[in-house]
Amino acid sequence: MSSERDPSRRQIVQGALAASALAAVAHANRGSTGAASPAILSRAMAHELPPLPYADNALDPIISAKTISFHYGKHHKAYVDNLNGLLKDLPELGALSLEDLIKKVAGDTSKAGVFNNAAQIWNHTFYWKSLSPKGGGKPTGKVLDRINASFGDFDKFKEAFATAAKTQFGSGWAWLVANGDKLEVVKTPNAETPLTQGKKCLLTIDVWEHAYYLDFQNKRPDYVTAVIEKLLNWEFAAANLG
Ligand code: MN
Which residues surround ligand 1, an ion (CB under 5 A)? Predict the structure, then answer.
């Protein structure tokens, strides 16, 4: 009799697989090494591409569905796939949360690939949330109070944020961050993120060419101005400020 037609054997096999999966999850939670199946272990711990917080055409015409299809569907997804591939050979890093992983490998040149892909996953997820089809305009409440105290007024903040985004040489990011009670505008190159500098991120603008080239070609300043005026998600900034 073949095993496929033998219900008792099938049940035993399924039971063993379930037990193995449970053991792998328990094992991952402990963050130790042991005899769990590597295949099941890696599936249990894989980093995932978070869903977009809006439809792919929600930011049109400033950021088109075509840009989103490449930027989210190809670039952001590739960072996730690349990181999961790299972590297969680094089981000691596999159980860390994305934020803990970024902080752990920051500055370690032997882990530059892990840092770049992990930080780019985090930066992009933060960028999508920094934008909203109902965004733009002027914040209120605590965020506006802190902006006024830190920059003088909202127009001076906008000028500082736009300047950082326009003048970041090459690929990178412009950020509004909280450094203690003070709000600051900073820019970071490539995958670098204020997350590793002890600063609380409030908003970001991606200024890699892939963020704007299909919609604005070489006119980065026009993309930056449109994002600041029409898309910045001040509710997200307020939630981050706390
Ligand atoms: Mn990007």
Answer: 206, 208
Instruction: Tell me how far the alpha carbon of residue 121 lies from the centroid of ligand 1, in angstroms.
Output: 9
Tokens representing 87 are 């972590």
Model confidence pLDDT, tens digit, residues 140-188: 999 999 999 999 999 999 999 999 999 999 999 999 999 999 999 999 9
Write down the pTM of the prediction.
0.82
Instruction: Give me 212's structure tokens.
Output: 């704007």
Q: How far is CA 238 from CA 117, 130, 172, 187, in A?
A: 27, 11, 24, 20
Domains of the chain: 46-242 (3.55.40.20)
What residues contact 154, with CB distance under 8 A and at least 6 apart?
A: 138, 139, 144, 147, 148
